[in-house]
């Protein structure tokens, strides 16, 4: 007999199964095709979460209670940066709960017998040396080995700077060096391309009436001058039209850049954000330039793991926080442990929500006197695939680089995860990481369609694109793992970044609940996640009740 | 033996087919004579191909082969019982031994220290077996012809077969099939003779079943050999090189090719000349001695690259050197220079010395994990022609070497040609400086390479060209030579370059620019 209680429990268990192990199944491609031998996993970053959050009453009641001073919800870059900052500042009794098996969020990574590889973000541009907190973190992570005595500039670990050759573009069937189209591009278009780069170079040095840089990372440090901020109301495409940038090759390149950083096309990207991509690159170093990037075989998972290692407060993985309640002493957070299938109640004085906006909104819904405005954000779905290949047949032109982009395709190309390898054996097997932002005006519909797409369909689609550059690639693929990021990253659509609502959404609730996530920046890059975590942790420490550590 | 128990075939049955049988047997004489001579030609060609000095090789091979045939003829008197059965067995054996002789010799060339012994044993064995054939056939035909007819016919076919063999071997077989396939193909002919005899003679009935299996299995083995012959030796490769290719092998990492002509042996890795036995002493003496003569305290030495053991040979001339660790990526390469007689004599058994430890691995990964300290590090990598090798010439790599260098120790780096690749050469020197070393660039003339450059590096500049005694018996390096090597004429003098870093790979670009005009 199934009564209502056990039925509900079983539903919960069913959900737990999807939460905990959506990836253990090995999928195969369709028999009878050239890809029939290919197998791999299909990950979907916990899209079951939404269902659990919508129906929290279907979870079993709490069976135990934990107490901590600070609870961080979410182990992405912002949550980990906040946790690190709290540890640095001597905060005791910090606990972090993370929904996934591993922390890192978009900076997830994996490993097989060939190489480590990224599952998401995979590089960090050489940072602006004024970003001292970020530099201090990088030094602790071993990415900065020291500072030059005369210039005072950081010296980067050469093994972390992206090795040459860095980038190539497949244009007219030939791999050219660099990603800016050049080969066979008409002179008139080349003039426009040169003019565009002169413009962004000017903007890189531009300052507003308030003396602040027009474009800076973190973006909240940028000038408040209206002549720059008003660019946020326009789409980047509209801005480019106004400025007379009509060259198809340039416009393709700028669409590519928007997709690469934001997952959106120029037409759906704020002009301010589109320009920020170029004009905020102010990196300086003793042994690198602003154009250099830092990268690792496992991508930014190296950074996420370094953040994690720089604090020793406990982390509870596969734990879903689904409800927040105010208590006389602070807050109670109900969490579901998908491994033990138990619910627990975590009591904390302060809570730091390092969760995406659509989760945050549900978690805080029950708090009294909540003045926090709702942020209307769009999240772009992404598909990331890691292909283990026995070899990579090359076309004419430049040899395999770190970043390899195909002109005129939907993806933003692939990176070679084995690029930083110091081995002489460059003919052996490789792992290549392919990135496909699912751009489109209707993110929700696109996301639903992405969830319905089968493993075989993804592999077929990816191979169809890559085989235009690497004939018969399918026969070289030993394994293909696919990850569908339903809410890949926040889209800086026009009006998102300098919307006053964004600032209001960062405000803490009664010195008890604090907010940190790249959604609050409007762009999803590592530096912003790091900044958001640092900011929220600083606010939390400033607001901590005097008895907190008594 | 079971032969004795087998009754002779009934006379009537033999008589019934008597008309066809003698013709068939005489046809066999013709085929086996052709095959026999082809085996001899294959052995002679292979020997002069692999060992050089063709007059000596051909003479000794023919001598051994004919003498062994004599032994075979003499042994034939001990065969009794069913002669036809013996003949069929013999043909199968000749087909297998002769057929596989060429592929076997090619494969063993790499692994066997005493290759000559194997060669002559195989030639001798083939000779003995071939020597048995004609006497045995003559005995089988004994009662079917008059003696004078028998002798005349058998030897006529024998000599016609020899003529045919000597013509088709150089004109048809080697150009069309190559040595290995020729060998296997001719082996198959012997076995076909065995198969035909087995089916056309009713006397074979009692043992037909068992020998049919052997015939089929042998044919199959030879067929498989023919199919894979391409892998054993790529014939087209012979055309890419000036001289005869005597060995070639694709390892996981590279294609190793050895060629020889009347004067010298040359080693190519991926088509790039590594050394010529004629003048490699100039390169290796210049690489090793200028730094080591000034290091009387050098005990521990690290060699990176240099799997040919030729630099190690020079290092072993210093009694103070106690331990040499050689790290080369390719086990195929070091194995070749540890086991092949010709190459072992070239490096004077350097890689077999008890002072030498040979490790196969990636040099970059090795230096990052090694915790030993070395008095002398010899860096002998291939030229920086691609981005993977370019990393082994980077400032980051040289900083790793710095961690491994004992106080007062020194490094030497082969640095391409300062004449052809002037930018590349000085880029290596400047990169070593950027990694914190004092450098001493020098160069020498190696006829098969041209002007070649090296850079010595150390934490101090206390080096002197007459820092200590040079070993006896050097053919190129003297104190005066060292002084000479330090002088750079105006067309090779220092020019400004970038530093080679992992994130700019300046050297690979210089190298492409420098060598580009020469590669078209």
Q: Would you mind describing this structure in some detail?
A:
The complex is a heterodimer of chains A (550) and B (520). Chain A has helices at residues 4-20, 49-54, 77-88, 132-140, 187-205, 226-229, 236-242, 248-262, 271-279, 301-309, 357-364, 443-452, 455-466, 473-476, 500-505, 526-543, and strands spanning 27-28, 39-40, 42-44, 62-73, 94-97, 109-111, 116-118, 123-125, 144-147, 154-156, 167-171, 174-177, 293-295, 315-316, 319-327, 330-337, 342-353, 379-389, 403-406, 414-416, 430-437, 477-490, 513-515. Chain A is α/β, with parallel strands linked by helices. Chain A has a domain at 21-49 and 378-490: Polyamine Oxidase, Chain A, domain 2, CATH 3.90.660. By secondary structure, chain B is α/β, with parallel strands linked by helices. Chain B folds into three domains: 2-233, Growth Hormone, Chain: A (Up-down Bundle); 238-272, no CATH class; 279-518, Vaccinia Virus protein VP39 (Rossmann fold, 3-Layer(aba) Sandwich), CATH 3.40.50.150. Helices cover 55% and strands 14% of the residues of chain B. In chain B, helix 10 links the parallel strand 5 (300-305) and strand 6. Chain B is elongated, with a radius of gyration of 31 Å. The N and C termini of chain B lie far apart (70 Å). Residues 1-18 and 235-240 of chain B have low confidence and may be disordered. Chain A: This is NAD(P)-binding Rossmann-like domain-containing protein. Chain A: Its cofactor is FAD.
């Amino acid at each position: 007999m199934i009564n209502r209680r056990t039925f509900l429990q079983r539903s919960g268990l069913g959900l737990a199964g999807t939460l905990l192990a959506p990836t253990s199944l090995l999928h195969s491609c369709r028999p009878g095709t050239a890809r029939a031998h290919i197998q791999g996993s299909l990950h979907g970053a916990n899209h079951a979460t939404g269902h659990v959050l919508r129906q929290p009453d279907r979870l079993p009641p709490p069976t135990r209670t934990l107490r901590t001073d600070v609870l961080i919800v979410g182990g992405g870059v912002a949550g980990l940066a906040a946790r690190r900052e709290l540890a640095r500042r001597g905060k005791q009794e910090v606990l972090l709960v993370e929904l996934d098996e591993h922390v890192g969020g978009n900076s997830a990574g994996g490993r097989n017998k060939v190489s480590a590889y990224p599952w998401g973000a995979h590089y960090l541009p050489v940072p602006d040396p004024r970003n001292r907190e970020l530099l201090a973190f990088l030094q602790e992570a071993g990415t900065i080995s020291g500072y030059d005595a005369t210039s005072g500039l950081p010296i980067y670990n050469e093994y972390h700077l992206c090795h040459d050759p860095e980038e190539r573009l497949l244009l007219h069937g030939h791999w050219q060096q660099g990603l800016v189209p050049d080969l066979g591009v008409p002179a008139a278009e080349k003039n426009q391309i040169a003019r565009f780069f002169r413009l962004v170079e000017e903007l890189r040095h531009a300052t507003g009436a308030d003396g602040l840089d027009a474009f800076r990372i973190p973006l909240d440090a940028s000038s408040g001058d209206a002549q720059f901020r008003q660019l946020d109301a326009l789409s980047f495409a509209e801005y480019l039209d106004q400025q007379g940038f009509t060259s198809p090759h340039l416009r393709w390149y700028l669409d590519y850049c928007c997709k690469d950083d934001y997952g959106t096309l120029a037409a759906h990207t704020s002009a301010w954000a589109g320009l920020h991509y170029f004009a905020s690159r102010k990196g300086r170093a003793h042994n690198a330039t602003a154009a250099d990037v830092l990268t690792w075989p496992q991508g930014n998972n190296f950074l996420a793991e370094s953040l994690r290692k720089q604090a020793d407060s406990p982390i509870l993985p596969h734990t879903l926080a689904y409800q927040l309640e105010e208590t006389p002493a602070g807050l109670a957070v109900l969490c579901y442990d998908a491994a033990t299938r138990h619910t627990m109640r975590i009591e904390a004085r302060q809570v730091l929500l390092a969760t995406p906006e659509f989760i945050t909104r549900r978690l805080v819904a029950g708090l009294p006197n909540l003045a926090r405005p709702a942020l209307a954000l769009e999240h772009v779905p992404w598909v990331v695939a890691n292909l283990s290949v026995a070899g990579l047949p090359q076309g004419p032109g430049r040899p395999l680089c770190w970043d390899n982009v195909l002109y005129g395709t939907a993806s933003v190309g692939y990176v070679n995860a084995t690029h930083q390898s110091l081995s002489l054996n460059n003919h052996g097997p490789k792992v290549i990481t392919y990135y496909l932002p699912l751009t489109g005006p209707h993110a929700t519909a696109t996301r639903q369609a992405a969830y319905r797409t089968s493993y075989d369909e993804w592999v077929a689609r990816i191979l169809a694109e890559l085989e235009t550059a690497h004939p018969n690639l399918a026969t070289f693929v030993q394994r293909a793992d696919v990850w569908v990021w339903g809410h890949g990253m926040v889209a800086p659509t026009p009006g998102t970044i300098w919307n006053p609502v964004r600032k209001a959404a960062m405000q803490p609730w009664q010195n008890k609940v604090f907010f940190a996530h790249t959604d609050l920046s409007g762009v999803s890059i590592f530096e912003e996640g790091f900044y958001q975590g640092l900011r929220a942790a600083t606010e939390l420490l400033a607001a901590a009740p005097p008895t907190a550590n008594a | 033996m079971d032969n004795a128990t087998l009754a002779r075939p009934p006379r009537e049955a033999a008589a019934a087919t008597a008309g066809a049988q003698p013709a068939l047997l005489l046809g066999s004489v013709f085929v086996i004579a052709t095959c026999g001579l082809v085996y001899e030609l294959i052995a002679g060609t292979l020997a002069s191909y692999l060992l050089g000095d063709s007059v000596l090789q051909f003479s000794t091979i023919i001598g051994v082969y004919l003498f062994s045939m004599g032994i075979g003829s003499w042994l034939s008197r001990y065969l009794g019982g069913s002669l036809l059965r013996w003949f069929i067995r013999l043909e199968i054996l000749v087909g297998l031994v002769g057929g596989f002789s060429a592929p076997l010799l090619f494969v063993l060339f790499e692994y066997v220290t005493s290759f000559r012994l194997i060669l002559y044993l195989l030639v001798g064995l083939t000779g003995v077996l071939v020597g048995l054939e004609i006497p045995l056939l003559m005995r089988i035909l004994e009662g079917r012809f008059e003696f004078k007819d028998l002798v005349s016919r058998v030897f006529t076919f024998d000599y016609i077969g020899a003529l045919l063999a000597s013509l088709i071997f150089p004109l048809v077989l080697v150009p069309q099939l190559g040595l290995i396939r020729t060998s296997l193909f001719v082996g198959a002919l012997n076995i076909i003779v065995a198969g035909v005899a087995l089916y056309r003679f009713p006397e074979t009935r009692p043992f037909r079943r068992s020998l049919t299996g052997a015939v089929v299995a042998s044919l199959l083995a030879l067929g498989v050999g023919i199919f894979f012959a391409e892998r054993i030796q790529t014939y087209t490769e012979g055309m890419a090189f000036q001289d005869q290719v005597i060995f070639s092998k694709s390892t996981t990492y590279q294609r190793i090719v050895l060629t020889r002509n009347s004067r010298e042996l040359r080693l190519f890795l991926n088509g790039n000349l590594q050394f010529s036995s004629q003048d490699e002493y100039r390169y290796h003496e210049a690489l090793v001695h200028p730094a080591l003569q000034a290091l009387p305290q050098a005990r521990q030495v690290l060699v990176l690259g240099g799997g040919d053991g030729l630099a190690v040979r020079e290092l072993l001339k210093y009694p103070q050197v106690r331990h040499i660790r050689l790290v080369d990526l390719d086990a195929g390469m070091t194995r070749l220079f540890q086991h092949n007689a010709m190459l072992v004599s070239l490096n004077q058994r350097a890689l077999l010395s008890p002072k030498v430890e040979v490790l196969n691995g990636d040099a970059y990964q090795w230096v990052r994990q090694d915790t030993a300290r070395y008095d002398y590090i010899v860096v002998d990598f291939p030229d920086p022609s691609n981005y993977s090798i370019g990393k082994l010439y980077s400032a980051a790599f040289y900083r790793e070497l710095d961690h491994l260098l004992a106080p007062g120790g020194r490094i030497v780096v082969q640095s391409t040609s300062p004449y052809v690749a002037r930018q590349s050469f000085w880029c290596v020197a400047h990169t070593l400086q950027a990694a914190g070393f004092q450098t001493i660039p020098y160069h020498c003339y190696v006829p098969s390479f041209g002007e070649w450059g090296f850079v010595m590096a150390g934490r101090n500049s206390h080096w002197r060209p007459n820092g200590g005694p040079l070993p006896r018996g050097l053919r190129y390096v003297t104190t005066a030579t060292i002084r000479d090597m330090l002088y750079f004429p105006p067309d090779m003098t220092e020019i400004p370059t970038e530093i080679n870093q992992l994130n700019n790979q300046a050297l690979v670009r210089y190298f492409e620019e420098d060598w580009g005009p020469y590669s078209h």
